[in-house]
Design goal:
By secondary structure, this protein is of the alpha+beta class. The protein has three helices and seven strands, in the order βαβββββαβα. It has one domain. The relative contact order is 0.23.
């Protein structure tokens, strides 16, 4: 996994197909999330990894809209679950994460292709997708 630079984190996680892990350096607790852009483009679906299969074991926990995370009561994960609370904290503190680090799995956060170019790995966005952020 590659640590994501925090300077452009808000845009990176909303690239459309983001999968990333947040880890607290102090407690070593970590959670992996997937944020997928809805077809309408107005909201993003938020999922948390809850099983061993890191491609398919994601569970819906809410939506991200207008720079806010909104827990969904349709989620099978409790609103008080540590993973849900951690994501809420992450969104509120995205510009000042303190001891929390964010890691990319090595795929473009927009299209999901594997990243191979060093600059793309550092940015978490592939060379073709980066033009959508300029």
């Amino acid at each position: 996994m590659n640590q994501i630079q925090t300077s452009n984190l808000s845009n990176i996680i909303l690239a459309g197909n983001a999968r990333f892990t947040i880890q607290n350096r102090l407690t070593q607790g970590r959670f992996t999330y997937k944020i997928k852009k809805a077809k309408s483009g107005e909201v993003y679906w938020v999922y948390v990894l809850r099983g061993k299969d890191n491609l398919h074991d994601y569970t819906f926990i809410g939506v991200y809209k207008n720079l806010q995370y909104i827990y969904s009561h349709k989620s099978s994960v409790s609103q008080t679950a540590p993973s849900v609370k951690a994501f809420g904290w992450f969104v509120k503190n995205i510009n000042n994460l303190g001891p929390v680090e964010v890691f990319n799995e090595g795929r473009c956060m927009r299209c999901g292709r594997p990243l191979t170019v060093p600059n793309s790995i550092n940015n978490s966005i592939g060379p073709e997708c980066i033009k959508y952020f300029k």
